[in-house]
Amino acid sequence: MIPVLLGVSFLVFTILSLTPGDPGSIILGITAKPEDIARLNAEFGYDRPFFVRFFTYIGNIVFHLDLGTSYATRQPVINSIMARFPNTLLLAAMAMAVECLLGVSMGIISAVRQYSVLDRVMVVVALVFASIPGFWLGLMLITVFSIRLKLLPVFGADTLRHFILPTLTVSLTSAAGLLRLTRASMLETVRQEYIRTAQAKGAGERVVIWKHALRNALIPVITSMGTGFGASLGGAIIAETVFSMPGMGTLMTNAIRQKDVPTVMGATLFLAVMFSVVVLIVDILYAFIDPRIKAKYRNEGRGRG
Amino acid sequence: MDKKNKRRKHSQLKEFWRRFRKNRTAILGLVILAVIVCIAVFADLIVPYARCIEQVGADRLQPPNPSHWFGTDELGRDLFSRVVHGARYSLFVGVVTSLIALAIGAVLGASAAYFGGMVDNVIMRIIDVFMCVPPILLSLAVVSALGTSLRNLIIAITISCIPGNTRLIRSVVLTVAEQDYVEAARSYGTTNRRIIFRYVLPNAMGPIIVNTTMMISDMILSAAGLSFIGMGIQPPAPEWGALLSNAQTYIFTAPYLLFFPGIFIILTSLSFNLVGDGLTDALDPKLKD
Amino acid sequence: MNNELLQVKNLSVQYKTDLETVYAVNDVSFSICEGETLGLVGETGAGKTTTALGIMGLLPKRTAHITGGSISYKGRELTELSKKELLGVRGKQISMIFQDPMTALNPVLTVGDQIGETLRLHNTENLSGEAIEKKVDEMLEMVGIPPERKKEYPYQFSGGMRQRVVIAIALICDPSLLIADEPTTALDVTIQAQILSMICDLQRKYGTAVIMITHDMGVVAETCDKVAIMYAGQIVEYGELKDIFTGDDHHPYTIGLFGSIPSLTKKYRRLTPIEGLMPDPTTLPAGCCFAERCSHCQEICRREKPQPVVSGSHMIRCHAADAHLAAASDFFEKDLSRG
After folding, report:
1. At what angle do helices C159-171 and C111-121 cross, to 10 degrees?
2. Taking Cα atoms as reference points, which of B206, B243, B274, B220 lies closest to residue B95?
3. Under DSSP, is residue A287 helix (H, G, I), strand (E, B) or coil?
4. Is residue C317 within 8 Å of residue C306, measured between CB atoms?
């Protein structure tokens, strides 16, 4: 876990260090006096070599929870992240929940009723939704629910009601993918020999599906949840722009426009770390559903103890 | 198992086309795709580029009408011609990024699978690190560092989908390389080159082609998304995402500006998805119980 | 012991897809009495598994169609049972063991759970949870697995052990009929004998009738009372063990099957394989299905389907057998006409 996080930090730090220009000239503009620029560059530690800067940066994060200082506001980056991250997390989490609920359940129904009209319709609808850009869906939801029907607020993140449309925006498009995955996995599972064993025992359709097929079918679905959360984060970032929500997405796009490298770097790193943590949690969850993996973990634990 | 153990031998490609043709939605996808490719290729014949940039002050924010099929934007530009010429951007970006990502992913994934050991370890650990950053963040970071332009957009979204591609190709190649027929070929002394080109590649092609088709669809969506938040192709270029970004301001007054570019993005992306879906079914007949 | 348990009459099954129709089982008839063992022999693709699945009511719903015939079990017509009635038969009355123990067990459930499930599904005696667990322990012991291992998952068992679990699943409800679909094919040779003798022991103990599906004549010789030889979806020869192994007349395919088995006692004999392949099940020939590969093939064999020729308990579906049996009367008739 730690080497991966270090790797991620290095990756993000390297990419963003490619940004042309130094903090001094970005903040003060190119017309400023060279000695002022140099002073500011020293203040940001920009005059030191790349690796020194990198390790100072990491050191500051680890020991002081300090992600640097914004070029634009001259405030600690961590403050603006902490002010906005809860919105993004809430949006991504709610979207994830709706997505799982919709995608998994409809995927199961579709697979169980394979070749029925319902199944055919759902497969096509899912494919269409998978082809809709999230932001466009958001704009359409605004036109229908906020402008025409005047049911829901358009902009901001003040109440939970503000989250309804963004959540739908993010979840509907990704639920389509999950539906397809669940359906495919379910169909694959139903073809397995142990399903026939269960049927030969005299188990009815319900027992076969819920007890025997579902748990096996969910294994690849759960594996995909990790990347699914990444997609939700990505979707949230875009949806925030559509709904003008104060979140990580708007923070980052603004920072990119202002060439506020520390903020971009801090935000990217922060989200990447969050994402890695979620992926780790998913791995653990995975172990609970698949005894083979659980046994592996247990044996490793025993080996260490 | 007792059934259909023997099938008459058909040419593989013929058999494949026969199955694909039976799939009506896949054919629909192919038709839509053909139309959009035609639009992109013959854009200048359909409507001259000049109409994209021509600003008619009197015709600002006109709803769709006989002279402006899709209406006009806030500067009086004809939306129809802008959407037609925008097809080039979306297709170009989608196809180019996917092909580059495929090429790089193939080299990395295949060498990881083929050489194994240290090479595999190093490549895959680096890929693991890339996988820890959600694709859009990676794209944003790259755009932030390089600035916004068509070239940088291509770099940004290509980078973001190389890791997934590498993993996929590695696993496909590993699966195929483990098959008994490869083992058999090796046992009677077939050269490595021949094994790769005659045995591994043809059998690994299926999933890779399907994945690439679906990837083009994803790339079109990502490119539109980045352009929409202003991190991709910049106005006044008539890229669909950029058109939508611009139209967002007029959501209350001119919602038709949002409608048409969006529909075209969906159709393009959908056509690739439909074709990819049809390919999956046609390549994997056992799914059709 | 001579009560008829299962009677299959003129059963035909087809698989229909939009591309083709596979004639998997054609006009198959056999019967089995309580406690008996019937061997269903034939090469891969002969329709053995399809027949078995037909009896179980487990044919794939969309593609497979029973186009004719009847399956009657203890006087009840299985093909006409409702879904629910069929569930009561499966596992409780008739159970089935599948070929590959590596895939036949659910990887995410403990073996104890999977064995006990059969009992819980057919809990007509209202056994308590504890009673069921006790029964599971007994059953595990019976198949030679320490009961402590019931909390373990399939991946922790070897192939042979898994097949024991599968057998325990099939037998825990004490069914009257067990269908064993090549139960030992996927196992090591040493394990094969163990599993086979275990099935036979349990069968004797409980008086279970067994349909033993196999392509191994050795297995048939050791375990079966009756034998049905299947070829291209048809039973080409059917009879008691002695009819098949020591009878005078045989279907050429049966002779071919014996010719393909190495013999320890007759050293001089060479292996004589059956040349050629089974006919394409989507386009069966007009005449005898075996005609293409038969060394005694005559003109009539290509033209007409042979009808079953019965003498006592022995049935052969062959024009040659027909000719042979009819020879006596034939000779007589010819004699008359000449005279």
Report:
1. 20
2. B220
3. helix
4. yes
Contact B3 C281 (CB under 8 A): yes
C64-73 and C234-240 as β-strands: parallel, antiparallel, unpaired?
A: unpaired
Across the interface, do B133 and A135 touch by the CB < 8 Å criterion? Answer: no
Mean pLDDT lowest among A232-246, A278-292, C121-135, C206-220: A278-292
Residues 6+ apart with CB under 8 A from A170: A91, A92, A95, A99, A134, A232, A235, A236, A239
- Nearest-Å Rg of the Cα atoms of chain B is 23
Question: How many separate helices (H) and strands (E) can be counted in chain B?
Answer: 13, 0
Nearest to C221 by CA among C261, C189, C268, C176: C261
- Which parts of C211-318 fold into alpha helices (H)? 217-223, 241-246, 252-259, 299-303
Touching B: C residues 30-89, CB under 8 Å: 44-50, 60, 62-63
Q: Which of C46, C99, C280 sits opposite B8 (nearest CB)?
A: C280
CA distance A264 to A251: 8
**B vs C: CB pairs below 8 A:** 34
- Contact, B203 vs B251, CB < 8 A? no
Rounded to an integer, the average pLDDT of A211-240 is 88
User: Using CA atoms, how far apart are residues C274 and C251, in angstroms rounded to an integer?
Assistant: 13
Q: Please, what is the Cα angle at B133 between B127 and B139, to 5 degrees?
A: 100
How do strand C209-214 and strand C314-317 relate by DSSP bridges? unpaired
Residue A142's identity, in one-letter code, is I
The first and second tokens of residue C259, run together, are 């010719």
* C333: pLDDT strictly greater than 50: no
Give the model's pLDDT for residue A302: 47
**Lowest-confidence pick of A81-90, B201-210, C5-14:** B201-210
All domains of chain B in start order, with CATH:
12-283 (1.10.3720.10)
Q: Does A206 touch chain C (CB under 8 A)?
A: no
- Given CB atoms, is B1 within the 8 Å cutoff of chain C? yes
% residues pLDDT > 70 (chain B): 94
Shortest distance, CA B191 to any CA of chain A (angstroms):
36
Residues in chain A: 305
pTM: 0.83
- Cβ within 8 Å, pair B289-C24: no
Contacts of B48 (CB under 8 A, 6+ apart): B81
Helix A214-243, helix A134-141: angle, nearest 10: 70
For C19, name the nearest residue in chain B, comparing CA atoms only: B19
The ipTM estimated for the assembled molecules is 0.85
Say whether residue A298 is in contact with chain C using an 8 A CB cutoff.
Answer: no
Residues 180 through 219 of chain A touching chain B, CB cutoff 8 Å:
187, 191
> Domains of chain A, with CATH numbers?
2-64 (no CATH), 81-260+275-304 (1.10.3720.10)
**B3–C45 CB contact, under 8 Å:** yes
**Which 3 state secondary structure label does DSSP give C16?**
strand
Helix or strand run (H / E) with residue C162: helix C159-171
**Is the backbone of residue C274 left (phi > 0), alpha (psi -120 to 50) or beta?**
beta
**Which phi-psi region, left, alpha or beta, contains residue A290 (left: φ > 0; alpha: ψ -120 to 50)?**
beta
Q: What percentage of chain C has pLDDT greater than the value 70?
A: 91
Judge: A142–B251 Cβ closer than 8 Å, yes or no: yes
The answer to whether the CB atoms of A197 and C106 lie below 8 A apart is: yes
Residue with tokens 């999956």: B280
Token pair of B219 as six digits:
């790339």
**With contact defined as beta carbons under 8 Å apart, do A35 and A28 qualify?**
no
Q: Is it the case that residue B7 has pLDDT exceeding 70?
A: no
Structural element, H or E, at residue A180: helix A161-190
C3: confidence class by pLDDT, cuts 50, 70, 90 = confident
Other Cβ atoms less than 10 A from the Cβ of C46: the count is: 29
Number of residues assigned to chain C:
339
